[in-house]
Design brief:
With 382 residues, this protein is an alpha/beta fold. The chain contains 14 helices and 13 strands.
């Protein structure tokens, strides 16, 4: 083949290969194939589960729940479209990515459950294109590298059930398929504590933006424009801003030359630096245009930060936060100023309610219980 200009090397798949099998206590009632995050099951025993994303713990908790219900569980990576079945399965739990592909190879009586961690791709992509267009009109530049696209898929069409991370806002994007849907809250990746010594009089005008890639999708541009217009308010930014070169260039003045805005960059939410930042801020501003359920906001709730978030984050704000209806820079300014004007005692009470909500709804215990009820319902229906 070298004579033809081809060099054949060893094949290396673009996903963690292999299968990890988990057995229940006693004789298995049946088998479950889980296609989600494989890495936590392959880690060395002395290594902890990664806190870089909530889906590492989700995958572990899903497998654990099925195993406790008496089923053997085979786990593969969600990107493993090459997986060849060696046996029959009673249930197939899969992320959206290759559900359709793997489902076609299953025994016909296998019950298929889509684990949906984002809004439907059409909703998501429409929302992110809308944000790009809005930015283009405001600042005269297109930034496709700061969007967040979901690949087209027909996971819900090929599943018998859907488990949707988020609330009814997220679930509504899948209702068209007329499949039974269950909503499920994401678990916290880390448990950052609300300090008893937090000084709300000192931090009442300091806020945080915490997110990963897709800065325009997640509304960092809107947050920057809002805080640049409010010199009396302070914004700390934690996220991989430097990785999005065109975004950084467009917003360099706001990111690095505006006195009341501090750009930290990526930060480990399980580390001491993030704990210090949470101690110095009163709330989290996160005007994302589409999510399943924003894990970064859940992390902030657990630390007692008050949410100023768009409805599309999939997180209800109860009596402790603010829902951003339009998520415009003007609305963000108004919401920030209203929250900062509250008394220190009111801010403390709201922070405690935010923290209590996160513990009750987003702990690993809460996830186990909620997912366990979903599993029981599906088993009973099957």
């Amino acid at each position: 083949t070298r004579a033809l200009g081809l060099d054949i090397g060893r094949y290396r798949p673009e996903f963690p290969p292999g299968v990890v099998s988990l057995r229940p206590d006693g004789t298995p009632k049946g088998g479950v194939l889980l296609s989600y995050i494989l890495e936590p099951f392959q880690r060395q025993r002395d290594k902890t589960v990664s806190t870089s994303h909530t889906h590492h713990w989700e995958s572990m908790l899903i497998a654990e729940t099925w195993r406790k219900h008496g089923y053997g569980v085979d786990v593969i990576d969600y990107r493993n479209h090459e997986f060849i079945l060696q046996k029959r399965y009673d249930f197939f739990v899969s992320a959206r990515t290759h559900l359709e592909t793997i489902a076609a190879r299953l025994n016909p009586d296998c019950v298929k459950i889509a684990h949906l961690d984002t809004s439907h791709y059409a909703t998501n992509n429409h929302a992110t294109y809308t944000r790009l267009l809005d930015l283009q009109r405001r600042r005269g530049l297109s930034l496709p590298g700061s969007a967040r696209f979901v690949e087209p898929n027909r996971a819900i069409e090929h599943a018998h059930y859907g488990v949707v991370l988020g609330n009814e806002v997220t679930a509504a994007t899948y209702r068209y398929a007329n499949k039974p849907l269950f909503t499920l809250n994401v678990p916290t990746a880390v448990d950052v504590e609300l300090s008893d010594t937090k000084d709300f009089s000192a931090c009442h005008n300091s806020f945080l933006w915490l997110g990963s890639s897709g800065m325009v999708h997640k509304g960092l541009d809107l947050a920057l424009e809002a805080f640049a217009a409010m010199p009396e308010m302070h914004l700390t930014i934690c996220g991989p801003v430097a990785a999005e070169k065109e975004f950084l260039q467009l917003y360099r003045k706001e990111l690095y030359e505006t006195a009341n805005i501090r750009t930290v960059g990526w930060v480990d939410v399980s580390g001491s630096e993030f704990a210090r930042i949470a101690q110095q801020c009163v709330g989290v501003v996160y005007p994302s245009c589409a999510e399943g359920q924003a894990g970064s906001v859940v992390t902030c709730l657990r630390a007692g930060l008050l949410p100023l978030v768009s409805r599309e984050t999939g997180i209800p704000v109860g009596d402790f936060g603010v829902t951003l209806e339009s998520a415009s820079a003007e609305e963000i300014c108004s919401a920030v100023q209203r929250l900062a004007a509250l008394s220190s005692e009111e801010l403390r009470l709201r922070a405690q309610r935010a923290r209590d909500y996160a513990v009750a709804q987003h702990s690993h215990k809460a996830y186990r219980e909620a997912y366990g009820q979903i599993v029981q319902t599906i088993i009973a229906d099957s």
